[in-house]
Amino acid sequence: MACNKVLSVFRPGLFTNQVAIVTGGGSGIGKAITRELLHLGCKVVIASRKVERLNQSADEMKQELDKDSPAKLLPVQCNIRQQEEVKLLVSSAMEKFGKINYLINNSGGEFYCPVAKMSLKGWNAVIDTNLTGTFQVTQQVYKAYMKEHGGSIVNIVVDNGNGMPGMGHSGAARAGIENLSKTLALEWAKDGIRVNNVAPGTIYSDTAAANYGEFNLFAETIPYTPAKRLGTVEEVSAAVSFLLSPAAAFITGTTIAVSGGSHLYKNQCFEIPDHDKMPAYTWGKSEKRLLKDAVTGKLSP
Ligand code: ADE
After folding, report:
1. Which of 83, 189, 195, 265 would disulfide-bridge 184, Cβ 3.0–4.6 Å?
2. DSSP at 246
3. At what angle do helices 28-39 and 233-244 cross, to 10 degrees?
4. What is the mean pLDDT of the chain?
5. With a 6 A CB cut-off, is 107 part of the ligand 1 pocket?
6. Which of 22, 34, 77, 79 to mutate to test ligand 1, by most ligand atoms within 8 A of the CB atom?
């Protein structure tokens, strides 16, 4: 085994001689992905804005590697909003390892805020990081290596199919990424590149727990998850490894929900208060009143 702390259902050595970039690879889901790729023999470049935590995580994960492991790990500080920093990330990977077979766009960020209260600055920040950042890293990796040699790209989005009340900026950005993935699956198929998404439901990680603060997202969402439990970062990572692997050679332009079924179930933990504001389709008397009365039993035939 390349790393004695990690369990993976995939065969050790599966990604030997392969090189991956994982943005946000120093914490949470990104760290779990990095660990599994290393375990499977991959050379991994991890990127984050926060260099201290990145280096600390890199040291930790390097220490977990067996001495004879072919895996290697290179941390690179990078703000994915800045084109020059993205170019430097990609050129660092090329200089160190000579190729980039896999790209996992996992960096992202958001904050809770209903759309009505959202500032333009806050909106732009989330769109810039999640959507435009993904575009920038993807385009640079394409130009630097994948255009000539093919590759596999996995974008980590979120389960956004029912909207994301309280995080409209993030939902819009992630839906944008999913659509971009479909476009790229078509535009870059001729180059031998597959592009897919993994959409996690509610996944426990220490990083997420610290970010959510007082709002206990974890406890709130379990009733809305058919699996009646939270997901783990390793379960997201397993889906990524599958999509990168030859087992997914015929899969492109799709999204795997790692959500315990929550993407099919009720809309998160968002309550809509009782109200009488929805306009009626009027063609004479108030249909709005009549339809409410039908429910309360007051409607006479
Ligand atoms: N994680 C959150 N925001 C980021 C950014 N702008 N660049 C890289 N990683 C990030």
Report:
1. 195
2. G
3. 50
4. 91
5. yes
6. 79
ipTM for the complex shown: 0.90
Q: CA-CA distances (angstroms) from residue 210 to 164, 204, 214, 219?
A: 20, 11, 9, 14
**Confidence at 2, pLDDT banded by 50, 70, 90:** very low
Task: Kindly give the distance from the C-alpha atom of residue 9 to the centroid of ligand 1, in angstroms, as a whole number.
Answer: 30
Q: Which ligand 1 atom sits closest to the C-alpha of 24?
A: 9
Ligand 1: residue whose CA is nearest its atom 9: 48
Residue 124 has pLDDT above 50, yes or no: yes
Q: Decide: residue 9, CB within 10 A, 0-12 exposed, 13-18 middle, 19+ buried.
A: exposed
Query: Any idea of the CA torsion for 118, 119, 120, 121, to the nearest 10 degrees?
Result: -120
Q: Which of 168, 152, 151, 149 is nearest to 160 (CA)?
A: 168
**pLDDT of 121 over the 60 cut:** yes
Q: Which backbone phi and psi does 47 adopt, to 5 degrees?
A: -130, 140
The tokens of 14 are what? 């599966």
Take atom 7 of ligand 1 and give the residue whose Cα is closest.
79
pTM of the predicted model as reported, rounded to 2 decimal places: 0.92
Which DSSP state fits 127? I
CB 133 within 8 A of CB 155: no
Q: Which residue has the higher pLDDT, 275 or 87?
A: 87
With CA atoms as reference, report the closest residue to 137 among 145, 28, 57, 54.
Answer: 145
